[in-house]
Amino acid sequence: MRTTLKIVLPLIVSVAAVSLLFAAYQVRTEKQILRNDLARRAEILGESIQESVEPLLDRSPDRSLQRLVDRFGQRQHLKGVAVYSAAGAALAITSGLSPAFRLRPAAATRALQENAGVDEFLTAEENPSLNPEEEVPIHIYALPLHRNGEVVGALALFHDTSYIDKQVSHTLRDSLLNASIQTFLITGLALILVRWTFTGPLTRTANWLRTLRTGQPNAGRAIVKGEILDQLHHEVTHLANDLNTARAAAEEEARLRDSNASTWTAERLRVSLRNKLQERPLFVVSNREPYMHVFDEKDSSIRVIVPASGVVTALEPVLLACNGTWIANGSGSADREVVNSRDRLRVPPDHPSYTLRRVWLSDEEDKGYYEGFSNEGLWPLSHIAHTRPVFRPEDWLQYQKINRRFADAVLQEMDGVESPILLAQDYHFALLPRMIKDARPDARVAIFWHIPWPNAEVFGICPWQRELVDGLLGADLIGFHIQSHCNNFLETVDRALEALTEWDRFAVNRQGHVTRVRPYPISVAFPENSHAAGGSRKAGEERAALCAEMGVEASLLGVGVDRVDYTKGILERFRALERFFELHPAYQQRFTFAQIGAPSRTDIERYKNFLDEVGAEAERINARFQTARWKPIVFRKKHHSHEEIARFYRASSFCMVTSLHDGMNLVAKEFVASREDERGALILSTFAGAAHELSDALLVNPYDVSQLAESIRRALEMPEEEQAQRMQRMRDTVREHNVYRWAANLLSDLTEIRVESAERVEAPQAT
Length: 767
Hints:
This protein has 23 helices and 23 strands. The protein is α/β, with parallel strands linked by helices. It starts with a helix and ends in a 16-residue tail after the last helix.
């Protein structure tokens, strides 16, 4: 109630003050109107009497003048009329008029002097009446009287104005009454509105937060949508979510400590990084940005989308944990609209926790640096996927130029930061570590290479292998997915550069600078309670719903999730499916394989052609086996959200990952993490890095069509007990070796590296 009074009391005072001011204005206006009306009527009457009196002045005064003033003195509110000579004597005066007016009043004197009509209002105190009972406010209007053009006297009319004061007092009373009623009504309405739209919702919000703070269940909603406190509701909801998240994280940490478990969580990573970084910011640079802003084609509004990227999936928790800065290529159509003057903005949009710095590339630069050198050169070179790499001098120039531009942006962000820490990402920035280290020797620099590193002989195909390797060796730490990639890199260093390769501790000493080379198997954020988060449908119900959406009738479902890339073994997968249906016709019209294929790099001719090849192969196989209500392959050629993909994971009997060569492949780990029911099978290529960790998958050579077809049969016919045993072990692996542990290990190793000059000894010359 006290809060309500604090809000309403100023309103009451304001309304009362305004009402009183309006009443005073109304009374003043009413009084002025009545006075003006009286003065106008006195003037008209005076001029009428003047016309009658002036002829009588031509003769000696007689009783006719007295009769005239007596006759006019009987009008409403007119107390009397008096006629004065030029000397001031009363020639005639209305009977009953105060004797005091036998003396010429000041108004009549002024009328004689000014030869014009004069009026004045006298209060009761100013009334010259000798009788106190007759002391009333009066109005005097005086006119000059003429004879032969000369002023010979004055005419005065005396009106009683007490009726004006009475009418004004009535008006004042009515105005005050109206003001009181208005104040009462407005105050009452304000009390209701404040309680309904403000104090009521605030009370409910306070009670809601109290229940959340005390950990009581069924807290309900804070404020009903549509009320004026929607914005507060939005922020309070985020606060409540943060509170729940923090409580859940704290409970999970307590559980892990109690059980001596080694599982890493987002909260554990945050605490670890806070201790390791010691309030120093972390800088991350990648080609792909974590959030893109694009114009909506329908209404030109700006939408925020999260690009489908393993790099984004891995790094987002790290930046959320340490309030760092992510430098990336601004590739969204509306990206420039939302940054500040320094090309920065805070992200994520709903809960800003770190800074995104965007770097701009022209179409020509993107074509040379990204499409050309990175994805037509380094990508096929590293994946050994029997697609010839293309190395053009002009693309190499753009690659150097863009690496320098990103390095400059990183150095700008580092300006003023002591001993900064940088984590660069992937094959797009092989030259950047050297550029940063040369400019900031005090910086700790790491780069994580997300794709395979081929053997030295294969990498030697690149005309600029020396420059690339030297650029990478500017880093203090280089991370790969698996140990064999580390081995290949060190062998490449041996063949390409003059440097001391220390195989015993997997390090390279070049010109006094030591670079450590380590495997860090990247992973996903294991979703505890994923079933509650992802939906309540069981696998069978979800499968039925998905088949209905795809327009097929099937009791069994398999899934593949890939970018449409020639390294993913999609064509080999389709041919294995064809072979499977040939060998096991009983599964026709029972089993359907859903291939989720996100178009990728379609501006590159090889990718564009490959997309057409995949579509044509799916159509060829379908034409061979499909019926009116069933087909063996459903090729979903579009981008899917994480939620949409999770539905396929939960509903499928198996997931196929048939990479011809892959650094890690997070799809395999995402599928395992999503199967809370501990059912389903994973068919996994031995050429994917994930095969080194997920040994309970059905490991296959994707080039062996018969083996791949047999693995499909095994997955579909695998007993539930075996499914559970395999899936439990794989889930334990992914849970323990999740993305938080990956980030913690990599950054922990980086922060422990000494960058003092004592470590910079001259490397012996290689022989």
